[in-house]
Amino acid sequence: MSPIDSLKREEKYFYERFCELSGRIVDSLAEQLEPPAPDIVFRDGERKIGLEITRIVSNQEDRRVEEELERLLAEAQSTFEGQGGPPLLVAVFWSHNFKPKKSNRRQLVSGLVNLVLQNNPNIGDEVDLGWHNLPKEWQSILHRVGIHRWPKLHQGLWQNSKAAAVPEKDESILQDCVTKKEKHVTGYRSLCNEVWFLIVAETNKVSSWWELNASASQATYRTSFDRVFVLADWPRRVVELRTASFNY
Known about the structure:
This protein has 6 helices and 12 strands. By secondary structure, it is α/β, with parallel strands linked by helices. It has 2 domains: 3-58 and 167-245; 61-161, no CATH class. Helix 2 (60-82) packs across helix 3. The chain starts with a helix and ends with a strand. 29% of the residues are buried.
């Protein structure tokens, strides 16, 4: 699986989580078009909505490690599904000090695929492999692996995670995040009736962990997006931010 395919799969997952947590019905015909289109284009009644999705990356050194872990996990997922494995949500929690090497990727991919194959849950079930339940050869590499087989999961998603403190983000950082995307809104509007912006606060990537504090959730953001949301993780919820119309 290429990095672009992995990114598109991740964006589709975030869209489906957004729908689930905000009480919307997932549009099975939602599209992922090429630029200048937004990341997801879906229908809400008679309206065509463009959804732009972004993460805030705050630690570039961690991000480089994550990129190798993402390649590793994408290859493992592709191999597993290529062997006939069902779509799963797999959360891989790596040991804090583990830093993968490209030269070891093939060996790690093979071992991880075998680990998931040996612990493939029944439909509707999940398997949680804590550190003490992992094979000894994995205990210096992995902290935990969660394997979920949801009945309505049509596309698998394998995600990385590590342990670390979760920082808060204030409104100035969120405003900057929104502002950086403003230059694309006019192009998006040529394809959609409305353009929404989704900022993802995720806990499976150390470089983009953050928590939405009270001040940031109550602030008003200047934007030409029609609506702006945060996909929060602790607790899991969708928060719509207040906006004031502004033409850049």
